[in-house]
Amino acid sequence: MESSKVIHAIYTDDDILMSAVKDVRAAKYHIDEIYTPFPVHGLDKAMGLAPTRLAITAFIYGCIGLTVATVMMNFIMIEDWPQDIGGKPSFSYLENMPAFVPIMFELTVFFAAHLMVITFYLRSRMWPFKSAENPDPRTTDDHFLMELSVANHNEIDMAEFLKNTGAVEVNLVEKAN
Amino acid sequence: MYTFSNKLKTFSFALMILGVLGVGYGFLSSHKSLDEVKTMLADEAAHHGGGHGEAHATHEVESHDMHADAEHGEVAHAEADAHHGDEHAKHVQHQIANRPWSALYVAAFFFMMIALGALAFYAIQFAAQAGWSPVLFRVMEGITAYLLPGAVIVLLIAVASGTIGHYNLFVWMDPEVVAHDKLIQNKSGWLNIGMFAFRGAIFIAGWCTYRHFARKFSLAQDESDDNRNFKKSFRIAAGFLVFFIYTESMMSWDWIMSVDPHWFSTLFGWYVFASLFVSGITVIALITIYFKSKGLLPLVNDSHIHDLAKFMFGISIFWTYLWFSQFLLIWYANIPEEVTYFVTRIEDYKLPFFGMVALNFLFPLLILMNSDYKRIPWFVVSAGIVILFGHYMDIFVMIMPATVGDRWFIGIPEISSIMLFAGLFIFVVFTSLSKVSLLAKRNPLIKESEHFHY
User: What is the largest CA-CA distance in chain B?
Assistant: First the structure.
């Protein structure tokens, strides 16, 4: 079984972490993952992560919700059984549209919100009973952990380099694939 | 320091001169004799073919004009046709005479409400102690300089229409009409010219007093060595906002809703507020982008533009929410005394009435939804121009159906009125902007604003 080596560099301050990220990227080491106890503003930019496309999916889901609401009420209220309910004009969808707008709006929001949340869970692989992927429990409290793959770099040099970026602890970890 | 460029000054004067000429032409060409109107109506009848008389009979009944209603009620329905024709021609004659007045009033109100909206936005920035906006304070103060002349002009046009004019905007100012109209008689405790002028004077005095002191404290803060002036600004802003929300509501009843004195709506004040607020914010954004493009606001960055565009986006949706809420409730309940308001608008103003929803809602919704687009000046500018045009149409559709009815058109009187007040607006605002530095120096939040980043 093949195994790969990673280095865990632990920081205790988000500002130091940010400057370390910049140094590490400048030195062309590869950052696998960073674990933080809270959102660090600007960390994604510093790491060079691609921007999220979650908002675009939400827009598409909203359009789907609007379509569902329109098609549903057009079928029920206009095509299937166009009754005269309190004198409301049910001859065409447009004529009675103001009455449908509250539902069209709510379903748009409902689809956009819920499907986006589900998309988020799927993309970030979160569900109940999922086993936590936390390499060090302190990262949920007050420590920041940067995981770098050793690949074909020299471990000693890397550890030294990371110490100099302000890491309080540098560990070499064997990771089973 | 900004110097009012000669080019822009000449441009504003050219607008004003062309505007005055067009407005003059509008007034000169709107006095038609009864015979001329009759000939015109006969011509129209010939073009439209038969069934015209019938159409007009329904029009008279549904018409919202008190003139027609009151007189029509007195005249027995069995009266001779000839007499009815006379009545109708008089009614149309009055509508034609109303057109230049209404055009002037709509344009005057539109530019006044931009200044008022900017003032409300300005006061909110102080009351909320917003950290992003202090670099824009001088732009906002410049825009609000138009409030005093603009609001006085609106009030003068309104009062003049009932004193020197022939009741061309507000039918309740006409004693003839009131004498035959029980509904207006019951409202005459509120709707009479004396009280109208008095209330208007109070509104304007209150708003302009706040504007005067806010500007004074803001300038004094630049020179002082403590924050006393800033604290005063905060306090008067909070006080003004309370005064503003009451007076803005009453202003909307007086200056706009009372053109239809038989109609009333409870959320009308908010609706007008949303309209003026979004117009004010849009003009702040447009002038900021203009100055930034000239390099006069080096501290304004993309994030400030982004924030302004977010406000344009959000308040546009807020306006739509109120527009739709007012429409839906009245449409759904369909109570005859309320629904006439929308019946006349949908029958005679279909394109402007629904067109403005596209301009004020769909367009900004789709253009300004994307976060990246909100940082691109030409996107914000084009959205802003559409929003401003949409809100001109909004005021147009509030005033015109009550005064000119189906005799509306966007022609020389309307366009030249816009040019007249646009010229005046540019002149007053840029003169005010050229008087002081474009950066509020010692505002306690200015550092945060300079480094504002979203």
Answer: 82
